[in-house]
Amino acid sequence: MRLTKYNPDTGLYEYKEKAKTQAEYTEQRKAVIQKLGEYEDRAEKGEYERYREILKLYKYCQKTGVECKLEKLFDGYAIRFNSGGDFIQHRGSYGCDCGCVEPAIGSRLDYTAVPLKNAIDLVRRHKEKLNKVSKGADDEQRKAD
Length: 145
Fold this sequence. Notes:
Strand content: 15-25%
Number of strands: 7
Mean pLDDT: 76
Strand order of the largest sheet: 3-4-5-6-7
Oligomer: single chain
Structural class: alpha+beta
Number of domains: 2
Largest sheet: 5 strands, antiparallel
Helix content: 40-55%
Number of helices: 5
């Protein structure tokens, strides 16, 4: 039994053959766990850079003076801003498998797949609002869009 490929839509690995017994199924699950561990090890070593768009966006924020924190999630990253908004990229976020991040900063593009170029533009347009610490920041940002 061999894994064929990872399917990002389902979050599962596909097999060439289906398990016929509980023992085969258990072996398949062990293979998946091992494969995921190898995947994460390669990412940590820098051999495979997963979620590079959100990391590039974080570097852009740091370079331009937008105050934010990079938070490591179980599977991915989130950039948290003082205003309470964030950008996120993990296996469950929209468009993560096609190089997009998901904003939640109070704009009309919230919770949609946004390419890196558009995410940088959003940060540039909302820079002052993202740096504010206030409860009403989300309403102000929606009005700006």
